[in-house]
Amino acid sequence: MPRSVNSVAKRARRKKVLKQAKGYFGRRKNVWTVAKNAVDKAMQYSYRDRRNKKRTFRALWITRINAGAREHGLSYSQFMGKLKANNIELNRKVLADLAMNHPEAFKAVVDKVK
After folding, report:
1. Cα 93 to the chain's mean position, in Å?
2. How many domains, the chain?
3. Is residue 4 situated within a structural domain?
4. Distance separating alpha carbons of residues 81 and 113, to the nearest angstrom
5. What residue stretch is flagged as signal peptide (predicted)?
6. Is residue 65 part of a domain?
7. 82 burial type by CB count under 10 A (0-12 exposed, 13-18 middle, 19+ buried)
8. CB neighbours (10 Å) of residue 30?
């Protein structure tokens, strides 16, 4: 009996990977073995960096809150401690937005906790 191969599925699988590699430079976009490795690595990076993005944004928010708090004579840790003590439950994302875009509202929050 002759050997049976599923060329349709094989081609579909390869087309899918080459489509994902669209826009890559050089052989990474059109040579199967190179494109497969490049796409696998890109998927690892995207998985990792979806988690790292959360860390990066939290660090950015903390930096912005710290800058806003220091304008009013408080450090970041003092400010956050006083927020907790006064049961003000604003998250860092909102506080950073207030510090950057609505300084008068941020000042009201600082005055509330002082």
Report:
1. 13
2. 1
3. no
4. 9
5. none
6. yes
7. middle
8. 12
Structure tokens at 57: 């944004």
CA–CA dist 10, 105 (Å, integer): 60
Sign for the pseudo-dihedral over CA of 68, 71, 75, 81? negative
Q: Are 17 and 36 in contact (CB under 8 A)?
A: yes
Give the pLDDT band of residue 6 (cuts 50, 70, 90).
Answer: very high
Amino acid, single-letter form, for residue 4: S
**Domain membership of residue 87 as a residue range:** 10-113
Q: What is the pLDDT of residues 59-71, one digit of tens each?
A: 999 999 999 999 9
Q: Give the sign of the dihedral formed by CA 80, CA 85, CA 91, CA 96.
A: negative
Supply the pTM of this predicted model.
0.81
